[in-house]
Amino acid sequence: MPATLPSVLVTTEWVAQHATDAGVRVVEVDVDTTAYDQGHVPGAAGWNWTTELCDTVVRDIVPPNKLEQLLGKTGIDNDTTIVLYGDNNNWFAAWAFWQLKIYGHDDVRIMDGGRKKWLAEGRDLSTDKASFPSKTYKAKSPDTSLRAFLPEVQEAMKKKAAALVDVRSPQEFTGEILSPPGLPETCQRGGHIPGAKSIPWGKNCNDDGTFKSFDELRALYSAQGISGDQPVIAYCRIGERSSLTWFALKHLLGFQKVKNYDGSWTEWGNLVGAPVEK
Amino acid sequence: MKPEDYSRRQQELGGWQVTIETYKLGDVYHCTIANVDPGARFARADGPTREEAERVAIEKATEGDASPCTDA
After folding, report:
1. pLDDT of A229-251, one tens digit each?
2. Chain A environment of B61 (Cβ under 8 Å)
3. pTM recorded for the entire structure
4. Quick check: A61 pLDDT over 70?
5. What is the set of domains in chain A, with CATH numbers?
6. What residues form DSSP beta bridges with B13?
7. What residues in A contact B69, CB-CB < 8 Å?
8. Contact A124 B1 (CB under 8 A)
């Protein structure tokens, strides 16, 4: 990565050395919400994305007061260095990272390689549920420059005001399937937003779960005409996969204007009259 | 505790490439099946042996009883 970029990635070795340092809080966020209980980084907290990182009534990201409570009970204040990691190449760690940045947390990082790399290296695991002395956390006003809503995406499509990156699988992109097997059908139409480029999220990562190098990522996106010269909006089905791509574009490649459209295909693909390309 | 006997491999299951990850922690083998490229499909099982944990996890994945899962 360029030396000028802030360090948003830490290695598994760094975590092994610093996980319990004062001022550092390691948090596991998994797709599989039972994974934490089956062994986690010693001293790490576990967050459940289905209940703790969203509004469970209205479809929305976590409300600020709920985030403040979550961080407070995790022993995190505004000065804490938060290190996130998780399964599936840090998929939901990136989802948590995106939300923490929306609410203005300054020092948040991702453990490169996530749970997969930690396990593969045979590092210590704990099954003890960690508890922490409560702290007071104050969320900042949401940074809307990181999040795209439907009207902006519609405008971007019509005027080509932003590059749209579809991070779902090629089969979802073409409309061959509505979702990977085993998942509920949650959209009425398959395909993609007209003009979107297909760059599946997994292409950001190496086999060991780490992120690809700056040069590899730059080559991946520039091959599709995504160079950072114009705003970028990433989307998937409900915004989690695309938060990983958002992280790669914004924090690893350093693109200035990158938004995650968390309404994603479950919004667009259900919208009456929305144009669809296959 | 350190995870022991860790393994990770890819194979096709129901027409999709999945990753099967297994390790032993204490006396229990934990197996997780993830559909990494398209993302989002998970099956998990535990067992006293690697074979048993993987057998049950594959059974769940094949039957579409993968839980928990997400549709991101």
Report:
1. 999 999 999 899 999 999 999 99
2. 182
3. 0.93
4. yes
5. 9-142 (3.40.250.10), 145-268 (3.40.250.10)
6. B16
7. 31, 182-183
8. yes
